[in-house]
Write a structure and sequence with these properties.
Helix content is 69%, strand content 0%. The protein is built from 9 helices and no strands. The longest helix has 78 residues.
Length: 302
């Protein structure tokens, strides 16, 4: 019991101090006692002819084994003083269990165990205090780690958000560059776009108005009365509208229903009649507004 293992160098100072005090307790009180000699080495089961020893004793223990555990250098040694205490008790309990109550070994084991328990009770408050302190330190370290992880995640989120914002700004710049490099819209181009808008389905027409609203916050796409002035729209909006209208009309052409030859499901038509009527009414209102604006433009002196 002269030294602790090299792995103890990595232990916290408080725990290391307790291990050293516990080692001193074992040395001064137990191993140096005149009755300690039967417990210093593993029981010589074969030499003493104790053929039933391992049937009675599940886990043999002795002070040399405890010493080796204390000095273990591969990380397999004792982690705390309670483990040492448990093995010291096991040494004496094994001896008392196997030997008769009035035998010398039983009496020696009980005497040493009583002395150990007396000293352990004096030592226990230090153990409890160190365990409490270690629990607080571990809880604080866990909290610090959690806060650090949350801060790291928050930073990643901020960085990603900033990168996305920069990408969006860059995309806006690229879109504007593309528009500037495109040819300017003529009056005839705008007229054709206005006519194409009137051929959209009510759903696609609503989406087209939303495109206008994206670049023109003052434009109310869902207002009761919509006044869409093609001439007032930016080049970027016009190009976006053109591409959208082109794709929408192509999709409409592909999905247009063929003639059913009078075999239409009447019940389905009745259920959808009100929705279709409302959509068509909305479409007529918007198309009338587009035509009205185009008519005003055509009356302007050239």
């Amino acid at each position: 019991f002269l030294a602790l293992g090299s792995s103890s160098k990595t232990l916290p100072s408080g725990k290391l101090r307790l291990l050293r005090e516990c080692r001193s307790l074992c040395v001064n009180l137990l191993t140096l006692h005149k009755w300690a000699w039967p417990f210093m080495q593993p029981v010589d089961v074969k030499g003493l002819g104790l053929h039933d020893y391992f049937e009675v004793i599940d886990k043999p223990m002795d002070f040399s084994t405890i010493k080796n555990q204390m000095e273990a250098k591969d990380g397999t040694g004792y982690k705390n003083v309670r483990e040492i205490c448990a093995d010291v008790r096991l040494v004496f309990k094994n001896a008392m269990k196997y030997n008769e109550e009035r035998s010398d070994v039983h009496v020696m084991a009980k005497t040493l165990m009583d002395k150990f328990e007396e000293k352990w009770l004096q030592f226990l408050p230090k153990v409890t205090e160190e365990e409490r302190r270690r629990e607080e330190e571990e809880a604080e370290a866990q909290l610090d780690m959690q806060l650090a992880q949350e801060a790291a995640h928050a930073k990643i989120t901020r960085d990603l958000s900033n990168e996305l914002y920069e990408l969006e700004m860059h995309l806006d710049e690229l879109r504007e560059m593309v528009v500037q490099n495109c040819r300017k819209w003529s009056t005839e181009d705008k007229r054709k776009l206005g006519a194409a808008l009137t051929r959209l389905s009510p759903e696609d027409l609503t989406k087209a108005l939303e495109i206008v609203a994206q670049n023109n916050p003052e434009f109310q796409a869902t207002a009761e009365e919509v006044d869409l002035d093609i001439d007032a729209q930016s080049e970027s909006t016009l190009w976006r509208l053109k591409f959208f209208v082109r794709d929408a009309l192509e999709a409409q052409a592909k999905t247009a229903p063929a003639s059913t030859g009078g075999n239409t499901n009447d019940e389905k038509l009745v259920n959808n009649n009100n929705v279709t009527s409302n959509n068509n009414k909305r479409k007529r209102e918007i198309c009338d507004a587009i035509a009205k604006t185009a008519k005003k433009r055509s009356k302007k002196p050239s």
